[in-house]
Write a structure and sequence with these properties.
Helix content is 12%, strand content 43%. The protein is mainly beta. Strands 1, 2, 3, 4, 5 and 6 form a six-stranded mixed β-sheet that branches. A hairpin with a 4-residue loop joins strand 5 and strand 6.
């Protein structure tokens, strides 16, 4: 899983990820997280955003089982949320597969959080 948090300035998919607030990491394409006070206006306060991830895990593969466990821990710790999960037995291969989609939460600087995304009006 590439949601390694706590390593300040760790590069993840073009974002630098830092320790954030309330257990949710802060990410930025620029430099350090801004120093913002609660009394500052809303338009400069960090905003909560998310990325949706999807993966099928093969439970007989040790590495995939470890990744699946990390993703579950990531969600249980409050940094993400499981959206869908389907478990099925593959009779041909004789193993269990898990399809899961989850959202990974991040705080972002409001001036950055819609630069790469389509604007809806």
């Amino acid at each position: 899983m590439n949601e390694e948090v706590g390593n300040d300035g760790k590069n993840t998919d073009g974002w630098k990820v830092y320790k954030g607030m309330e257990g949710i990491p802060f990410r930025s394409k620029g430099g350090q997280p801004p120093l913002v006070k609660s009394s500052d206006p809303d338009h400069i306060q960090p905003t909560l955003t998310h990325d949706v991830k999807v993966k099928v895990y093969d439970m007989t593969d040790e590495k995939q089982l470890e990744e699946y466990t990390e993703m579950l821990q990531f969600c249980v710790s409050g940094k993400g949320r499981i959206l869908d999960r389907f478990i099925e037995f593959d009779k041909l291969k004789g193993n269990w597969k898990v399809f899961v989609s989850w959202a990974a939460y991040y705080w972002e600087n409001p001036s950055e959080n819609n630069n790469d995304r389509k604007q809806y009006t």
